[in-house]
Give the backbone structure.
Amino acid sequence: MNHWPDTGVSAALRQKYATDLALDRDGEWLQAFADVPRHIFVPTFYTQSTDMSWQPVTWGDGGYLEAVYRDAALTTQLDERGVPTSSSSQPSLMLTMLEALDVRDGHRVFELGTGTGYNAALLSHRLGEGHVTSVDVDPGLVAAAISRLRQAGHRPTLAAGDGALGYARRAPYDRLIATAGLQAVPAALLEQAADDAVMVAPLGYGIIRAQVTGPGHATGRFLPTPAHFMALRTSPAPPDLDAVRHERPGSTSVAPQGVLERLKFPLSIALPGYTSCSWKDDRGEVTAVGLWTADGSVATVDSTGTVRQSGPRRLWDSVEKLAATFTEDIEIAHDDFRVAITPTRQTVTYREPGGPSWHLPSASR
Ligand SMILES: C[S@@+](CC[C@H](N)C(=O)[O-])C[C@H]1O[C@@H](n2cnc3c(N)ncnc32)[C@H](O)[C@@H]1O
């Protein structure tokens, strides 16, 4: 692999980047962002053109270093269909999550989703490499991350595998951080958490911060910051949009235009892992929307309010229910949502006590 030099230019860009990131913050992480060269971890990233094709940008290309030391997520790996499978997350979001993790000297940290290795390097810089364990499902990414981490002077424990299973050999962990989107907190991570451990993890379109309160138990709430991470890798079945066309039509008073965008955070809790799409006319106006979940449920709604639903769950009914709870005058604040985890159930509640609540899917993954 190439070893990109840390030139005066990259060091100067990085210093400004770290200072800008840490503005208005307590600065605990400033030194790590200033010292760890992000460009070592992102030797190439991909930008998408208007025709949707991806172009690589690498060391030596105009604007490469400026882009690496900008507060932006960078796509670092694509699958054969051009779908992003790994990225270096937006640095300000990484900082928000690291601050929420509230690490102290001596803490042992587990990271789900090594990706480029940049976050593992920041953690190693702050805590020492012996306190950091990171797992990615993609062995190729892990091999590259090990090599880049060494180049940056760190040798944390890295492993290839399903991060939802944790890494029992190095447990217990005082802090656990996930950088791939979860639908529920994996049971193994709770089992491998120390007493009073803190976990920070993307869940739906938000990030939870939960404190372990006993074996298999934790409570917490969502951070105010909206966020979306690439999901844990699985192979969701594609929707059968053709089959739903033959379903008996119903009607809805919830206009499809804009509603999925406005409700996307509570929808991501009520229908974990859902996907949506929209159809537009020549003027770019939305004429219909569709949504589906991995269990094969599908709903489509057109602009006249005609609904068709198929599969085990009536997805548009869930949208209607959420639209009735979160009426347009309500500003949906992520930190109004709390999480309660027990060994048998994980529940998100809005403005408890007594607020609407949703059970997350089985906590095994
Ligand atoms: C947003 S990237 C992680 C960014 C990373 N922390 C960094 O600093 O570059 C998400 C990563 O999660 C990984 N991932 C997806 N599913 C996973 C799983 N089940 N177990 C472990 N890693 C997984 C992906 O391969 C991808 O590299």
Observations:
- The CA atoms of residues 140 and 160 lie 9 Å apart.
- The chain has two domains: 8-222, 241-325.
- The mean pLDDT is 91.
- The chain is about 25% helix and 30% strand.
